[in-house]
Specification:
With 341 residues, the chain is an alpha/beta fold. It has nine helices and eleven strands.
Length: 341
Amino acid sequence: MSVDKYPLDIWTTRLSDQIEHLNNLELNEDTVFIFHDAIARILWGVQFRGRAEHRHFSLSNRTSCSGVVLSHRSKLLISITGRNMSFTGPSVAASAGRTVRRSFDFGRTYVVRPKGKHQATIVWLHGLGDNGNSWSSLLETVPLPNIKWICPTAPQQPVTLFGGFPSTAWFDVNDLSENAHDDIEGLEASATHVASLLANEPADIKLGVGGFSMGAATALYSATCFTRGKFENGNQFSPNLSAVVGLSGWLPCAKTLSNKLEGIDEAAGRAASLPILLCHGKGDDVVAHKFGEKSAEKLSSTGFRDVTFKSYPTLGHYTIPEEMDQVCAWLTTKLGLDGTK
């Protein structure tokens, strides 16, 4: 279950220097996919279990490849996304100045069946740019025979952080900071999808949600919907959550959480009894460790009494066996799993 960081020496020069080379890239389709995939995995800490060749490409053949500029911390990364890439920007307004409602088409869902007696079902959400298959492959190997894992794939949508180019994302994100804009519409759509995936589970099965990075943020947002008992539009959040896990993530809408829980009779009880595990590495240079720490503090100060925050001194934006062992032990305890096969 070990995960190696992919040692890719990607270009980090200024945009003006990169554009000079853009017309000289020559790649085949396989290499294009690997190169783009590797960049997404480095930026967002997604599992990378295979190997890929790295080259400094001498960039040519405009007709077969399209260049995408990804901005990350003052560094500019060039990613080649493949043949005949098409992109339609977000429709922010229609005639008469009306805002157009976005469409969210969720991708394929991967399911890991329990290898023993079915006692719990957890929806697990991947990070930005990934899909459900990566995490389902990892979760297939964890020693939790009583859990059914549901690993959906986020919809393709324009991501502001990537200059508006599309990626699999649970919601739009413009920055990774305390002042980042909260995409309520995207968060609501993804939390609704999580609830729908849990809706048909048997009544005696305990339910949970977890995720990595942006998936962790979505899991925490789903937890706040459960605590309120409803979504922003007033529709009921039906699943009764028994556990929430967030790895290398953050709490969306943290500044308004207290106000949203006020005046809801059952919210305090649900918050107090909901177990939440947050894990974060101090070496994380994508979602800073302080965001995970502040998320745990905010939850605790808002009435969530069963919050565990686990810090890892050298961990970056990825997972390691020690962290996954912590997740397994915590879930076994909080969900009362007996390990029977």
